[in-house]
Design a protein that fits this description.
about 25% strand, four-stranded mixed beta sheet, 5 helices, Immunoglobulin-like, alpha+beta, single chain, 3 domains
Length: about 325
């Protein structure tokens, strides 16, 4: 009997020891699982925090850079399209969104517009119905030599002045002091305002050798510039850069007459009865043709007297 009781106790003890080992193993397993889950949760939290931070930075960059900027490597929202009219009336730059098409701008030169091109040589035409904006770009106008009558007296010219002479048949325009053949032109435009002060025409005792006809003013001006240096009437015209052009000149006598004829279309002339305007045409040595623009009066004055100046250009 005693042996049987000892056997029962031994079995119970073995069972207890066995269950104790199982409990320790289970606790260890649960602890390891808890650590794994905790680490996973922490990793997720870190990843989520980094994602939120990156998103916040992206939003901040978009707000701080604004549309059309590229401060952090993002594509701009829009691009700038500029237009080089090549002598036509000015066209303001526009903004265009990425991959958008643009409308054909309106520019006038008095000649037929052949199209707008992507290069200065005007060989790669921009097709407004198909081409899309993918970056900042300048488009260049190409003109024919065919007069189209799109400009008339009183219209704004390419240089920002007023057209005062338009010839459908064209006139011969002499481009420089040595030009003896000339080129055809159809228009003359006058600057909007006089030179700020009255000036002399030149030094006495020298005959420059000028002409009086329409189309000769530019050649006269260049000859005067080769003869005299100083703040004279020709210099006042040559120094003008209105509209980005550097081909302004002192009008010849006959060009000045046309300016008087269309003085109301041009405007901003002096109404003083004593104000005369210089031409670039000599009558004889020491005397040059002038024109009063307040009323009809044409006379000559000595080269050292001072008179008003209104610059013109041909196109």
């Amino acid at each position: 009997m005693e042996r049987f009781r000892q056997s029962i106790n031994q079995s119970i003890n073995q069972s207890i020891n066995s269950n104790s080992s199982l409990t320790a193993s289970l606790k260890k397993s649960i602890k390891n699982s808890h650590l794994f889950i905790t680490k996973s949760i922490n990793t997720f939290r870190i990843s989520l925090a980094l994602t939120i931070a990156a998103l916040s930075l992206s939003i901040s960059c978009t707000i701080s850079t604004g549309a059309g900027e590229d401060g952090f490597g993002f594509e701009p929202d829009y691009f700038i399209v500029t237009f080089n009219t090549n002598g036509g009336t000015p066209v303001a730059p526009i903004s265009a969104s990425l991959f958008s098409t643009i409308s054909k701008p309106d520019s006038k030169k008095g000649y037929t517009l052949l199209g707008w091109f992507k290069d200065e040589d005007c060989t790669d035409e921009w097709i407004f119905a198909n081409d899309i904006v993918i970056g900042n770009i300048t488009l260049y106008a190409k003109w024919s030599n065919t007069y189209d009558g799109s400009l008339t007296v009183g219209d704004t010219g390419p240089g920002g002045g007023k057209v005062f002479y338009a010839s459908s048949a064209s006139f011969t325009f002499y481009q420089n002091a040595n030009d003896t053949t000339g080129v055809p032109r159809h228009y003359l435009e006058a600057a909007l305002y006089d030179h700020p002060s009255a000036v002399q025409w030149g030094n006495p005792g020298i005959l420059v050798g000028t002409n009086t006809t329409i189309g000769s003013g530019k050649r006269n001006t260049d000859k005067i510039m080769q003869t005299f240096s100083g703040d004279f009437a020709a210099q006042a015209c040559v120094s003008k850069t209105d509209g980005g052009f550097k081909d302004w000149f002192l009008p010849s006598r006959d060009e000045l007459v046309e300016l008087w004829n269309k003085r109301l279309d041009v405007g901003n002339f002096s109404n003083s009865a004593s104000t005369f305007y210089w031409s670039s045409s000599e009558e004889i040595i020491n005397y040059v043709w002038t024109q009063k623009l307040s009323d009809w009066a044409q006379t000559t004055y000595g080269t050292t007297s001072t008179h008003s100046v209104r610059a013109v250009r041909a196109f």
